[in-house]
């Protein structure tokens, strides 16, 4: 292939976005392929918000571009932007099931990072009520269902507060879930459920606690 002479500084050191970042963010798969074929293109070059090409491809829902970028093992799938978000946290927040599955296909993906809002992957899926994504995450042994967010609430309390009964049920089906942890504010999920009058959730938690005592 005959390369058009390009100033390397313009490829990798723009203060806003690199060509690869723009191509990835706009879903231009063929342009992404061309740029990735160059040895002098930095695949994880970030903008002033520390967002990489992979981040923008996920943010804008370009599955084919994400698949292409993730095929390169020298791309970091866990890159953090200046708000603590990762490509995975973005995909979970936006409810992008296919994107989440693509990212989880990487063996080096990190599920228990406390990123945006101080939430882990499971906390995010719980908070936004994305049940299909939560089911996918709960099937992963490396996803901690008890990891508390920065405010001291675990996934179960995040589901109990707003009365997300189906989400509570999903969480309690994990064998290693603590059904009634005492959290940083001194409350337990069972106490929260009682105070908010979530009778179905109270019954679910009490049933799980009872099963553990047998």
TrEMBL record:
Keywords: ANK repeat, Repeat. ANK repeats lie at residues 83-104. Pfam families: Ank, Ank_2. The keyword Repeat applies. This is Ankyrin.
